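Long-time lurker. I teach an intro course on protein structure, and each term I like to show students one example going from raw sequence to a predicted 3D structure in token notation. This year I'd like something fresh instead of my usual example. Would anyone be willing to generate the tokens for the chain below so I can use it in lecture? Attribution to the forum is fine with me.
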Amino acid sequence: MDMQAVMPHAHARPAPPPFVEARSLPGDPVLDAAARCIERKGFDNTSLEEVASESGVSRTTLYRRYGNRESLFKALLIARAEPFREWSRCIYLGPGSVAERIETVLLHAILEMQRVGWLDRTLHAGMSAAAIRLFKASHAHGAETALAPLLSSVMDEQAASDARVTVAELIDWTADQMIVLASAAPWDEETLRGRLRYFVMPVLVPRRRPAPDDSRLAGIEARLDALLARGDKDKP
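-- Reply from a regular --
Happy to contribute to a lecture. Here you go:
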């Protein structure tokens, strides 16, 4: 399957809404405070205590609501990415080939990751294990309702039976590729689209292998046998 041929309308799709970064989240001062702290100090250097002080909420209340720092920051990522996630669901469930829909969402997600100040700085500084877990958890949360069924519909039979690859592993692998690509220098859309088509899409949407032609295989084997027999006769 030619990836270029199956995605002729990708350029015509509207751009998604941006991740919410500076705008407040109505009714949730804790998440707003967490966002401000992360903007100032980065993900790895922000503590629950600092978020509690910034928001005016007691540490006890903060721990009761979120349990730990990663749960709070996961909630922040999910909330801030919700407009983009809604757009992604519309693309995943909309018209076009499966490959075209997945490529479109990944393309804009990676470009958007590079536009979010604190996330872009974290990517280029080198994401810590905690930051990677957080990103993957947020990505998996958004993939459950739309991306997972799409991947399941096109999963290669050999991948499922021989390699025993699961949809959850594909989603996790996709998050890894997003981190790698978003960590690079700022992309232009065409170059990034080419990278996705070469490195990522053949794994997520495998090319359909043609059924073996038994008569052709038999002919090849017959010619090989003839060559081997001729070689034996030529030996002194």
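Some talking points for your students: Confidence is low (pLDDT under 50) at residues 1-11. The longest helix spans residues 214-234.
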